[in-house]
Structures are given as C-alpha cells and as structure tokens.
Amino acid sequence: MAARDIILEGSRWQIGDGQSINIRNHKWLPRPPLFKPGVDTLLKVGDLIDQQTNKWNRPLIQNTFMQSTQEDILSIRLGDPQTPNILCWAKNKAQRFTVRSAYLVALRLNHDGGGEHSKAQDDKRFWHKMWKMDVPPKVRTFLWRACSEILPTWANLARRRIPIEPHCDICRHEEETVCHVLWECPLAVNVWALVKGKLQKCTVAAPDFYSLARQMKGQLTVKELEVWAMVSWSIWNARNRFYFEQKQSQPADILHGAMTLLQDYQRLSKLLILAFSHM
Ligand SMILES: [Zn+2]
Q: Which residues, in sequence order, are CB contacts of 255 under 8 Å at separation 6+?
C-alpha cells in the first residue's frame, strides 16, 4: 500500500478561506457528505462561508445538504479567513502524525479494500457462495442488485439526481437506503424478530448492504443464509406494495410468504435433481 494513500485516508482539510476545497471531492468532513437531490455539488467550501461575517451561510448549507451533513458542517469552527487551507492528520486528537495512528489507518484500508488483491479474492468467495444458494434465481439476482446498490430505493434514486425526497415513508425517519429498508426500518425489524434461530437475535450493524451481506455470510449457515435472502426479497416486495399499491403487509404475512415460497422451491428442485439422476 502506498504511503500517499495512507496519508490521504488519514487526513482532513482544515479550512482557512475554503476557496480551493470542493464540497464533494475533498475530504473536509468527518464522514462523506450527503446532498439534497439536484443541488450544485461543484461548489467550494468557501462558497458556504459568508465573506462579510466569516460565518457559515446557514440557509445555503440547509438547502444543499441532508440534516446529518448540515450538523457536521456547522460544528466546524471557522478560523482566520486569511490562513491557507491545511491538510491535517485527523486520526488523533493532537492531529499529530504518529506511526501507530498511521498503522491503524493502513490496517483499516487493507481491511476495507485497500488491499485490492485480497479484496478481489474475498469478493469472489462471497459471490460463489451467494450464487450457489438454493433459492429461486430471481432472489439471487435481487441480492446481487441490493449488494451493488442498484436497487431503486429513494436514496439510490436521489444519488442518481432524480429529484425525489430520499426519506423512508414507512418510518418517516431515515434515508431509505438498501440497508435501511431491508434491515433497519421498523417494518424489517418486525419481520426479522419473527424469524426463528440466529437471525432473530442478529444485531449486526453495517454501513451498507454489501457489508451487511458479508457479515451474514460469515455468521450464518447456508440454510440460514437462504432464509435471510428469501426474507429480504419478501420485505422488498412488501415495500413496493406499500408505495405502489398503497397496501400494508403484516410482518407475519411477509415472513410466511417467503418461507412458503422457499420450501416449495427447494422441494421442487430436489425432485428435479432426483428425476434427472434417474434418466
Ligand atoms: Zn424506514
């Protein structure tokens, strides 16, 4: 891993006049910014600062960013606008570059995908297991779309600059990401609470659905993984019925539908294997 990658990963821009820092591409916030749909993301950080008062331009920030990012920005104290923007080491309180803190960043990069070779191997193993699951092909395809973030949740559509509100209408609380709708939303939580076995008590938290799926693969047996895939698919269908047919599904019905389909499918595929083996 290149030292440059470690330094860039572990550093953050400290804002002086903010003129050369792009709000989307530069690292200036503690976590990546979330934008409201259709806004200008080519702005510079300096554009968000009122030049007269040297204070944050709150209305512009409120119009541009989602709530969590607004809070991240407004908690940054602005210094002297005459000072240049400085790239600072952000991995310890003293902002002092130490070998230990750099080592921790390197470890994380390696784990999250900095080590590209091992990541590719991991991905390959993961998908091999997923494609071998004894679930209907449409469920495997669904899982692949969910992991690739191409499932049309409101948040994914907003990211593609479709002017819609990315929030979940089921709980009216969070952004509707894939992970939210299939795992964290109260509707999903109520369904998972009814599943027997390890999944019922599973309290995995993940930044996105692919990470969640990776953790599931690590913790569940093949049979449990099949139930997880099938129920996720069933929750997604219930979500679509809610938005497009104005029908609310009960958690027990969502689970029952998934389990019945899974049992029927597995019974049929066993019969087919038997029939072909006797030909
Ligand atoms: Zn929700």
A: 191, 194, 195, 231, 234
Ligand 1 midpoint to CA 169 (Å): 6
Distance 92 CA to ligand 1 centre (A): 35
For 107-136, the pLDDT digits (tens) are: 666 655 545 556 677 788 889 999 999 999
- The tokens of 158 are what? 């907003």
Tell me how far the alpha carbon of residue 174 lies from the centroid of ligand 1, in angstroms: 6
The predicted pLDDT at position 110 comes to 60
CA of 140 to the centre of ligand 1 (A): 24
Whether the Cβ atoms of residue 226 and residue 258 lie closer than 8 Å to each other: no
CB 90 within 8 A of CB 82: no
Which residue is listed with tokens 């003129």? 19
Residues 126, 127, 129, 131, Cα dihedral to 10°: 160
In the numeric block, the tokens 């997923």 are attached to 130
* β-bridge mates for residue 35, sequence order: 65
User: How much distance in Å is there from the Cα of 262 to the middle of ligand 1?
Assistant: 26
Six-digit token string for 168: 């979940």
Distance in Å, CA 67 to ligand 1 centroid: 16
Q: Where are the alpha helices (DSSP H) in 132-221?
A: 137-147, 154-159, 178-179, 186-192, 209-219
Q: In this model, does residue 75 exceed pLDDT 80?
A: yes
**Structure token pair of residue 169:** 């209408």
Distance between CA atoms of 232 and 219, rounded to whole angstroms? 16
Kindly give the distance from the C-alpha atom of residue 153 to the centroid of ligand 1, in angstroms, as a whole number. 11
